[in-house]
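During the second year of the project, the team shifted from modelling isolated chains to modelling whole assemblies. The rationale, set out in the original proposal, was that interfaces cannot be judged from single-chain predictions alone. As a representative example for this report, we include one of the complexes processed in the last quarter. Its constituent sequences, exactly as entered into the pipeline, are reproduced here:
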Amino acid sequence: MPPTVGWIGCGVMGKSMVKNLLRGGYSVGLYSRTRSAAQSLIDLGAGWYSSPMALAMEHEIIISMVGYPADVEMVYLGEKGVFSTSPDELRCHTAIDMTTSTPSLAVQLAEAAAGLGIEVLDAPVSGGDVGAREGTLSIMVGGDPIALDRVSPIFQILGKPAILQGGHGAGQHTKMVNQTIIASTMIGICEGLVYARQSGLDPGRVLESVSGGAAGSWSLTHLAPRILAGDFDPGFYVEHFVKDLEIALAECDRMGIELRGLGLARQLYEEVVQTGGARLGTQALHGAIENLARDGRAS
Amino acid sequence: MPPTVGWIGCGVMGKSMVKNLLRGGYSVGLYSRTRSAAQSLIDLGAGWYSSPMALAMEHEIIISMVGYPADVEMVYLGEKGVFSTSPDELRCHTAIDMTTSTPSLAVQLAEAAAGLGIEVLDAPVSGGDVGAREGTLSIMVGGDPIALDRVSPIFQILGKPAILQGGHGAGQHTKMVNQTIIASTMIGICEGLVYARQSGLDPGRVLESVSGGAAGSWSLTHLAPRILAGDFDPGFYVEHFVKDLEIALAECDRMGIELRGLGLARQLYEEVVQTGGARLGTQALHGAIENLARDGRAS
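Output from the structure prediction step:
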């Protein structure tokens, strides 16, 4: 019998991931802020629980995939949170936070859970909505290797082989590396397209010349054509990316380093938010860079 | 009989490209600043000429692959340059500048050549030393489509199908788009690796997690492992990349736009030059970002 899974958070990512677990034969109980968000999964056979605590009383493994670090804190450390369960009623032995959250919170959760005999793993992912749907997420793990072994059949359903990056928080740090790389890559792509248009080139034809060479990237292949088509629908929300950049910058601050490209990216993405783009996809950076390119010269 | 080719410039790129033409059955004459630079090609059967003008008197197609726009100016417009040949002694009907140079110089060359009945194409490449050696360069062309058709058998030997991007200068503009994208992508990669090390992660293992996903790029795959191995040998020289960034920034200025990522990249690469890295490979940006990351916080 596979272990029972209590799942917290039914957003775009969470929904696809739970579907894959149900398909894989797992018994899954759910908690989310509103029951309606979980309804389609309940229809597929998932159970419904009124609090994270209630989930932890009946499931061996708890997995959270929520929005912000504050949400993570609430579902674990809050009233009726996973860790407020009394030890003799607790069934959960492993808790996995797959939210992109702060490395320090990952450490704090692990410490809070130790007294309850719960192992905590931080396991943020990359691969977006498509990766979640197709079960091809890249999973970056921080925590105890034995705990990882125990839950690796679950990770195998959700994504590619999970990679243990170190102790508690190392998964989150790795995700910050991932986002730091993407941030400046996106700046380069959007600036390249602004240059192309401004110089009178056909940007689509330019992509034919540059996509397959040294300028090539996942983002250039997947997002540049969407920009040219005027499609700014979210694969990944600007507001979530801004959260990630802020976590990364706060960590840099804590570590005593300054990364200028990362700082510039935060500033540019903040512009996207200011102009109403919080719920657009990250490729909406193009509009901000186009506007600033002109304003910058005018001022 | 294939047309005869007069080749100007025997650097790393030029040498590999000429070898491919010789292998392809072309008769090639050479000019370079010093005869010694061309010796290995002369040994393979290439001819040697004492000036660009002398080359233009005996070859139907002239191709230049030199270092800087000033070099391009000299070989075409200078004393004993290609265009100083007297019309009745001129054999050249098409001149191709494959140097990464300014779009405005490409236009200027085309205008200067018109009176001589020479068609000029700007055709910078990407793909670096490996692409030159393997004949897989990406070739971005500006100029007349009929002239391109005429020389396309040559481009087929040197690289992938050449793409006509527009009129004179459009090839150079396209190359600037390429370099603009690479510039910020490199910032992201170097910052990601600095973050990884600073946060105590194993950067090699981090690459396993991030290279195959949304952070993936040609540069991450090819240059990040070199950075981690401490290998800063040039695939592409920092000093040439700085030249390209300066051309791109000057064009932005002319077009009335400001691209902040591009400006940041120039500033960071300038740091690499200042600390003696002009003849290292572009991945040497990592050292500058690592130093500035710490200095930035200290100040």
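The domain at 5-167 of chain B is CATH 3.40.50.720 (Rossmann fold). The beta strands of chain B are 5-8, 28-31, 47-48, 61-64, 94-97, 119-122, 125-126, 138-142, 163-166.
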